[in-house]
Design goal:
Elements lengths: L3 E4 L14 E4 L2 H13 L6 E5 L5 H10 L8 E5 L5 H9 L16 H4 L4 E5 L6 H13 L1 E3 L6 E3 L3 E6 L3 H6 L5 H7 L2 E5 L9 H16 L5 E2 L1 H9 L5 H15 L4 E2 L14 H8 L5 H11 L5 H17 L4 H8 L3 H10 L11
Parallel strand pairs: 3-8, 3-9, 4-5, 5-8, 10-11
Antiparallel strand pairs: 1-2, 6-7
Keywords: ATP-binding, DNA-binding, Nucleotide-binding, Transcription, Transcription regulation
InterPro entries: AAA+_ATPase, AAA_lid_NorR, Homeodomain-like_sf, P-loop_NTPase, Sigma_54_int, Sigma_54_int_dom_ATP-bd_1, Sigma_54_int_dom_ATP-bd_2, Sigma_54_int_dom_CS
Protein name: Sigma-54 factor interaction domain-containing protein
């Protein structure tokens, strides 16, 4: 079987990242994904990559780029959730000198920087509706206008988008433009979580052992049969990134260069006894209740729908004890979208000094 491994370039800024730094195509599911990537990569089609945090969405995007005709041109990955609303337009499209306070010189945006190559818009669901409109225009017209300028600049960029939230639910909640969704979603790649491609776990773990052996001089360790079994049966909530951190920790504490089960810092599965405490500490999201919420979001009757959505968001927020993360999870939206709507509705007050 093939043992293809792709890795991210070593960039110091990634030290606090939750991104996966390696991807392997050993499991049959992953091999089918790789074959599909090689099939669609040579086209110019936009691709929407969906997967949990830490599953390697950026690595998949880089693989698409490397198998395309743009492989010798720039590949740039941008985290759309990393910029404030006031800066994201400048970051994406650039700005002219004097466009805003502090703009002491002209600056090229990410679209211009990626000209001729590929641009990955990670966490695409965190973009505001205002920026979504501008992005849609760029995709349609293939030109950008820098902030503070009236001159359009042609760009030749293949756009890939990645998300860990359900954009279809965001559309129903009027937080993501349907026309932009279909523009981005010419091809969809669903990246399965690590627990659903068990054949990749040991090859990835071995890769991380080799990585720390070469980079930091750690002794070359191996797994006991019991440790391998424990790795394969684990539920991997943090996916590949969690695996890398776990291997790093195991290399520090293992004896005689053999990683044993007790060297692996694994979280208990939510199906085990710990779930009882979790249920007592937070509201239970009943599957039937979740179905009702999703069904209600599918109502679309103009002003009636808007009012209904407002009340539904308030109910969900209170149901989750004013916890934004749990509310977002319940409604299938990103936390940034929920936060923005709660501020609009007056349910969440943010001090100007904290902005």
């Amino acid at each position: 079987m093939r043992h293809d491994i792709i890795t991210l370039p070593e960039i110091t800024q990634r030290s606090h990242s939750h991104k996966a730094t390696a991807q392997v195509f050993h499991d049959p599911e992953s091999q089918r994904l790789l074959e599909y990537i090689q099939q669609i990569a040579p086209s110019e089609a936009s691709v929407l990559i969906h997967g949990e945090t830490g599953t390697g969405k950026e690595l998949i995007a880089r693989q698409i780029h490397e198998h395309s005709h743009r492989r010798d041109k720039p590949f740039i990955a941008v985290n759309c959730g990393a910029f404030s609303e006031t800066l994201v337009e400048s970051e994406l499209f650039g700005h002219e000198k004097g466009a805003f306070t502090g703009a002491l010189s002209s600056s090229v945006g990410w679209f211009e920087a990626a000209n001729g190559g590929t641009l990955l818009l990670d966490e695409i669901g965190d973009l505001s509706k205002r920026i979504q409109v501008k992005l849609l225009r760029v995709l349609q017209e293939r030109e950008i206008v820098r902030l503070g300028s009236r001159k359009s600049i042609s760009v030749d960029v293949r756009v890939l988008a990645a998300t860990n939230v359900n954009l279809e639910q965001a559309i129903l909640a009027d937080q993501f433009r349907e026309d932009l969704y279909y523009r981005l979603n010419v091809v969809t790649l669903n990246i399965k979580p690590l627990r659903e491609r068990q054949g990749d776990i040991i090859p990835l773990a071995q890769h991380f052992i080799d990585k720390y052996h070469q980079q930091l001089g750690y002794d070359k360790a191996k797994f006991s049969a019991a440790a391998e079994k424990k790795l394969i049966e684990y539920w991997w909530p943090g996916n590949i990134r969690e695996l890398e951190n776990m291997i790093h920790h195991a290399l520090l504490i293992c004896q005689n260069n053999v990683i044993e089960p007790e060297d692996l810092s694994l979280l208990k599965s939510p199906t085990q006894s710990q779930q009882i405490e979790k249920i007592a500490a937070e509201p239970v999201i009943d599957p039937k209740l979740k179905e009702v919420f999703h069904a209600l979001f599918q109502q679309n009757e103009g002003a009636v729908h808007a009012k209904f959505e407002e009340q539904l968001l308030r109910i969900a927020y209170n149901y989750c004890h004013q916890n934004q993360v749990k509310t977002a999870r319940l409604l299938g939206l990103s936390r940034n979208i929920v936060r923005a709507r709660l501020i609009e509705l007056g349910e969440l007050v943010v001090s100007k000094r904290g902005e």
